[in-house]
Structures
1.
Amino acid sequence: MSALPATGREWHLVARPHGWPTPADFALRETAVPEVGEGQILVRNQAFSVDPYMRGRMNDVKSYVPPFQLDRPMDGGAVGEVIASRAEDITVGDHVLHSLGWREYAVLDARHATKIDPSLGSLTAYLGVLGMPGLTAYAGLLEVASFKEGDVVFVSGAAGAVGSEVGQIARLKGASRVIGSAGSDEKVKLLVEEYGFDAAFNYKNGDVAQQLKEAAPDGIDVYFDNVGGDHLEAALSALNIHGRIAVCGMISMYNATEPSPAPRNLALVIGKRLRMQGLLVSDHSALHPKFAEEVSAWIRSGELKYSETVVPGIENGVEAFLGMLRGENTGKMIVSLS
């Protein structure tokens, strides 16, 4: 058995960003790997996730998850191989999903890790299509937005990890029309040709409300919001009576230094009797078995496709995160440590 590592690198937040984060707000530091205690495991991380919600955790404000602490390792979804174990149910060689990303080695209580089967697909799928973003898409569309067969669905940020899955699940569940917005012509082409969206548009090519009106001449029934801002305003205008909005994220506002104006047409909620509900995936863990069964079957049959943008090397972790905020990823943005 090879010797266990004495040290490993991990990303620390060293300053609270004001507006857009910069590389100076982070530091990659080499630290001692803790001893493995009773009931714990040591994981060599093979990949970790960078996600939009992490930007909010860089602010020192009370929210649904605690903020990152300064001069401490950040965390987030990760997959890796167990290289030491003092736990009953997890052995050396097992692969696990856990929440201590942004580092090369993680020591954690085994009860906070989930064993995953690498034979079912790539390990990184558990960070995206079969993981937290996938369940977010599934629960947000089917439970929060109360999707029903025949609905017209509009998804913003549709080429991202969550949005691309929302649109495909809507199509597979019988939507009459699925529309997506994205930030490049290449992504628009991917949505229509690869993911089966009925229509898509590049929000940088013109007025969002006008482009949505052209893509959905009969209006929309469901809006899955990843962007906020002008997209939310456009969706409010396009929604039909008793339309539903699932608010997953508002990435257009995460780095704003001034409050953005509320949608100018918010009063439409009254006359159209719209329902708008925020979405936190942690509220929907009971759906996980059904989600995993249904989505994994769609992946195996080829009915549901997914993309990953993989950035190699822990040293590029922050650049991958910043690239994700800039919209440079297609599908899930992942940092590979293999």
2.
Amino acid sequence: MSNTQITRPLFDQVMVPNYAPLAMIPVRGEGSRVWDQEDNEYLDLTGGIAVNALGHAHPELVDVLTQQAKKLWHVSNIYTNEPALTLAQKLVANTFAEKVFFANSGAEANEAALKLARRFAFDNYSKEKTEIIAFYQGFHGRTFFTVTAGGQPAYSDGFGPKPADITHIEYNDLESLAKTISDKTCAVILEPLQGEGGVLPIDKAFAQGVRELCDKHHALMIFDEVQTGMGRTGELFAYMGLGITPDVVTSAKSLGAGFPIAAMLTLTKFADSLTVGTHGTTFGGNPLACAVANKAFDLINTPQMLQGVKDKEILLRDLLAEINNEFAVFKEVRGAGLLLGAVLNEQYKDRAKEFFLASAEQGLLVLVAGANVIRFAPALNISHEQIRLAMVKFKQAVKLVTEQ
């Protein structure tokens, strides 16, 4: 049993009310299982919103964190450190990138990417080359710059004047991009799969068209892989399956498998614009975070793990199809790898939260992506047996909602 004085009502007393957490309070986890204060067990298909790529309390991650904690916790960027350089070396060796910038969150990685694009254009083209093109329903973080770049005004309205020269267009609409982009555009930022925007995957032809238009207008193609990176789609990074190479890729979430860390990956010719003093972070490249991320990288970046993600996607899709054959609640299941979204049909439109709550009552943790999509983002190493058990629980949750 956990501390009985720590209860859900305490949240409302002491925390800023920008979240509305469930009544249950998780206190420990192991792999894809979580236990609450009353020792109730749950199967976790949220992965901490696509963060816990190797589940909870992975023994090898616990070990490397413990070992690093006995050495260096923090040194700031007055110095470099061995775990950070080792991780950067792995990222460069396994991606298109030649240079890495470490931060603490996806928002910070995207902030760095957008600042890089503006600075590179300023240094090499014109001070008027400032436009950033982004996409409706996109999500790039909660700093004011990144939340404005995200295409969901409800997240950015009400905070005063927004950063200028950000243009939004429809996702997967190449014709619209061709009409909008110009030589004043410094960057196009997009996700290879819009996670928060409804688990909407990119069209391969669209991705290739974006690459061509960015080349034509000397604009940086920024791929926000905060949610898709590090094996989530069955590739180390999703761009690898699209036949294109971005100019910048951002990563976070699964990069540290639960420990806060982020990275911006780019080429030397772009990175050279961020000279000493132009950008920085106190905690970025923290030795503890980088030590954990190093081990997570080694565990994730294997043919067995990445192929396993693709195999588990097939299993999860098949089981969701069986549920849908019986209850007819989904219009489609979309996404890639272990980032899937079950889109509710017209009969159950905007009722995703009901399925979310019913699942928790059955001992299953899932996510939503807006009011109309139930999102699944389990640990990459979840077992086939746990997926089957999770879908038994989810089927019962669906039954309860449909019988209301």
